[in-house]
């Protein structure tokens, strides 16, 4: 992967993975969080969910953590209107600081591993703290070739029971979960699809063409099996 080409494609996209504001609001409602709470968005990307968290929790103090400087810059710009109650730092989400009433992580815990990430975050939670994270899952039923190819580079893929076992291994319990399927993926892929078209029209070099082709193939596989490709959003807490 040519990372310069990757970030050329992903520059100024609204999100870096499937999801929507309703996912964030669901987690806050199920956890009963409001008021002067502390929240971490671990792997916040360009700040889409961090912005929703800040809007939904007007008295909260929030920290977004991201490694690529480009995403840090974009998230800071996106959340600048919230002033100093929202900060975005360039750092390692395995060491988020804290303590937090909620650690939110959309599609990023796989960089650490579910069990490993939850174990790393345990000491970053308040005594009543929560973690909400999304993770790829294999849903029940026959899998098409497109669905199998879509997840071919993610050998850790398992079903809901498999992720639940990893959560239990980390010493947490699942309070609730919901599937992220269909429209929340289109929310991610539609701007990406448009960005690919724009860059192809500009005569990209070979490295960028390779990245565009790979992303276009990913989108095509999803379009061929959109009802079989899912993340699950889990709301968990230490057992």
SSE layout:
Elements: H1 3-10, H2 21-31, E1 38-42, H3 48-56, E2 61-66, H4 69-78, E3 86-90, E4 100-105, H5 114-121, E5 125-138, H6 145-150, H7 160-169, E6 172-180, H8 183-200, H9 206-224, E7 229-238
Parallel strand pairs: 1-2, 1-4, 2-3, 4-5
Antiparallel strand pairs: 5-7, 6-7
Helix pairs in contact: 1-9, 8-9
GO biological process, one term: methylation
GO molecular function: methyltransferase activity
InterPro entries: Methyltransf_25 (IPR041698), SAM-dependent_MTases_sf (IPR029063)
Question: Would you mind describing this structure in some detail?
Answer:
The chain is an alpha/beta fold and about 240 residues long. It has a domain of about 160 residues: Rossmann fold. The longest helix has 19 residues.
Query: Roughly what fraction of the amino acids lie in strands?
Result: 15-25%
- Can you identify the CATH superfamily of one domain? Vaccinia Virus protein VP39
Q: How many beta-strand elements?
A: 7
SSE series: HHEHEHEEHEHHEHHE
Short structural summary:
This protein has 239 residues and is α/β, with parallel strands linked by helices.
């Amino acid at each position: 992967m040519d990372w310069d080409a990757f970030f050329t494609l992903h520059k100024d996209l609204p999100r870096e993975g499937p999801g929507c504001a309703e996912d964030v609001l669901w987690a806050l409602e199920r956890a009963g969080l409001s008021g002067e709470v502390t929240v971490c968005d671990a792997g916040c990307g360009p700040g889409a969910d961090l912005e929703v968290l800040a809007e939904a929790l007007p008295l909260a103090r929030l920290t977004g953590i991201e490694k690529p400087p480009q995403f840090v810059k974009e998230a800071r710009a996106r959340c600048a209107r919230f002033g100093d109650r929202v900060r975005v730092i360039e750092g390692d989400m395995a060491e988020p600081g804290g303590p937090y009433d909620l650690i939110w992580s959309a599609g990023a815990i796989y960089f650490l591993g579910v069990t490993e990430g939850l174990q790393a975050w345990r000491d970053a939670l308040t005594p009543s703290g929560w973690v909400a994270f999304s993770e790829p899952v294999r849903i029940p039923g026959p899998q098409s070739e497109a669905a199998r190819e879509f997840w071919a580079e993610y050998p850790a893929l398992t079903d809901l029971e498999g992720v639940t076992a990893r959560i239990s291994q980390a010493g947490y319990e699942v309070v609730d979960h919901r599937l992220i399927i269909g429209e929340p993926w289109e929310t991610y892929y539609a701007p990406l699809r448009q960005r690919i078209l724009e860059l192809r029209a500009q005569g990209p070099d070979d490295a960028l063409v390779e990245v565009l082709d790979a992303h276009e193939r990913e989108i095509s596989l999803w379009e061929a099996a959109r009802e079989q490709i899912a993340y699950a959003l889990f709301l968990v807490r230490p057992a």
